[in-house]
Write a structure and sequence with these properties.
The structure is a homodimer.
Chain A: H1 3-19, E1 26-28, E2 35-37, E3 43-51, H2 63-80, E4 83-94, H3 100-117, E5 120-128, E6 134-143, E7 159-163, H4 168-178, H5 186-197, H6 203-211, E8 215-220, H7 225-236, E9 239-243, H8 251-260, H9 264-270, E10 277-281, H10 286-295, E11 300-307, E12 313-317, E13 320-324
Parallel strand pairs in A: 4-5, 9-12
Antiparallel strand pairs in A: 1-2, 3-6, 4-6, 7-10, 7-11, 8-10, 9-11, 12-13
Helix pairs in contact in A: 1-3, 2-3, 2-6, 4-5, 4-9, 5-8
């Protein structure tokens, strides 16, 4: 069924039916000029857009996963602020000849993320475009503590940490596009695929870090570890040094790189879309952070330290110091095959 | 200068410089994973997207006005909920070959609206698209009263009101596309152009209505009066009867229609983008509403009444009753020349 056959209002009704739910904090949800919500505390807000062909491709990710991932990208930002995700507004730009069933599948993915992470769609907008499909997600959250976790608090001698493992999403794109005849174990393929298609926003880690006194800065990894570290360095006015052999690279990325003579560190630094949290912690508190994270089943790795320097990022690899560029995923400067 | 020359981060810096400002309710503004804001009361949220070629066209509206109008469309929704507009998140989807200067002009329009209506841009996202430019604005507000103004409260015997005048924006599009050789006075051309390019969101009216006890429902007019009345009728489970000779049609629309043998009521009912508020008021309070509005310099007209009926809208024109369709601006069903 085509979008043109059901019209804007018919499409709205169908998509609304997929995501609508009861939520005590939603005084008025989808269906009026605006939604009305209530928060116990300061409100965190972010918006994140994805364009078909730029941020997602049919051959790399299914429709349900597109919806899921569009939500996760926003929740990841909220988590990295030390806030509990609460509400979503979804804007869809679609062509008249798009299949309604495809949009419903995307909304089922949105629904899965909403149920899994306890957030509610409270509204949105649907517009027609002759261009590629676009999904824009505005997410809100409420702070766990009195203050948000910002990029700007890193201090000299702080240690740099990162949650989970990194590089998997970027390596999956590379695998699919250039090396899908490389022999990888089903477990490795599955591991890479899940990191690309079904990433986990670090909401538990965000809660832990919000309550943890020694955490001085955080950033979520959407554009790549190098880019996010640059942002912390610039916002905090410090230098950052990280060690290559401390990077928690996804094991499947190492296996893939071994078979293809590719550089696993590149995926870790520049791959992007890991949706982990990178941040800094005062040196005296680092041990406590690792212990508390372990107790809650959250993986946290120390990967480097903050130095008094111009805002740049240095990688130590086999004893060599390399000043590394931002070079994260810049949508306007990407190469054709990225 | 092209977008590709400055890159995503360079573009962000330039556009941020245009709209950033001091605001006591913004604890953390543009530049981190998310913004942090604080509200005195329940929060109203809405999002509104505009696509180049669908919602705006170069020949009908300049770049500054595009930015201004994108903001106004969202503020109009907030006002119609009985809320004071507070914060904006702006998402831009642009091509790599777009002129940065054009985007800066759009942002100057956003800035004008922000200053005029006392709202603050707290964040957003910029993404690349091979398709047409799109601007999506998420707006928040805080309720003036304990309860929002909804679509669903209209009751039998209530009277129907509308603020300001209507039809001007739709007539301007028609004038530009089909009849720009029609002789109109400079005052009439200016009146139509301002209604299309620089509409006024009904924020004062929203505040008045929020505090006014007898107001039972409201809706902002973005898709056309007929469509908005249908939404009130459907949400409230009532019928609505309006009288053609009571419609506050913009005088310039009447002049234009007289010279072109066009139907002024059609522009009033289906033109859309008037950004006025239509609503219902209990019959005993209608006089007080008119008096209070007049005292504040807000134009309010009574145009019909609510009846016990199936949710439909009836127009009385020269004594004839016509059941009229929704037929507002449906982006997916629009004709080529709409």
């Amino acid at each position: 069924m085509l979008v043109a056959q059901v019209g804007e209002f018919g499409l709205l009704d169908r998509l609304r039916a997929i995501v609508e739910k009861q939520d005590d904090t939603v005084l008025l949800g989808i269906g009026d000029d605006a939604a009305v919500v209530t928060y116990p505390h300061h409100v965190v807000m972010t918006t994140d857009a994805m364009v078909y062909g730029i941020h997602f491709r049919e051959d790399l990710i299914g429709d349900v996963a597109i919806g899921y991932k569009a939500v996760v990208a926003s929740l990841s930002d909220i988590a990295a602020m030390g806030a509990k995700p609460m509400h979503l507004l979804i804007t869809l730009a679609v062509s008249q000849t798009q299949e309604v069933e495809q949009l419903e599948a995307i909304y089922r993915g949105i629904k899965i993320a909403c149920d899994r992470y306890d957030v509610t769609v409270i509204g949105g907008d649907i517009v027609s475009t002759p261009g590629p499909m676009m999904i824009s997600v505005t997410a809100t959250g409420t702070l766990y503590a009195q203050q948000p976790l910002k990029r700007s608090g890193a201090k000299t001698d702080d240690l740099v940490f990162v949650t989970g493992d990194i590089g998997g999403s970027g390596a999956y794109i590379d695998y699919q596009k250039h090396h899908d005849r490389v022999v990888l174990s089903p477990e490795d393929i599955d591991a890479l695929q899940r990191r690309h298609q079904e990433p986990t926003p670090q909401i538990l880690a965000g809660e832990l870090l919000a309550h943890f006194k020694g955490c001085t800065s955080t950033n979520d990894i959407s554009d790549g570890l190098a880019s996010e570290l640059h942002e912390i360095a610039a916002a905090s006015g410090v230098g950052i040094v990280i060690e290559a052999d401390r990077l928690p690279i996804c094991p499947a990325v190492r296996h893939y790189c071994k078979r293809t003579q590719r550089d696993a560190e590149s995926f870790a630094l520049y791959g992007g879309e890991d949706y982990q949290i990178v941040g800094t912690v005062s040196p005296i508190s680092a041990g406590a952070l690792l212990a508390q994270a372990q107790a809650q089943g959250i993986r946290v790795s120390l990967i480097g330290r903050v130095i008094e320097d111009t805002p740049q990022v240095t990688l130590i690899d086999h004893g060599q110091h390399h000043v590394i560029g931002k070079n994260g995923y810049d949508h306007f400067r990407q190469k054709e095959d990225e």
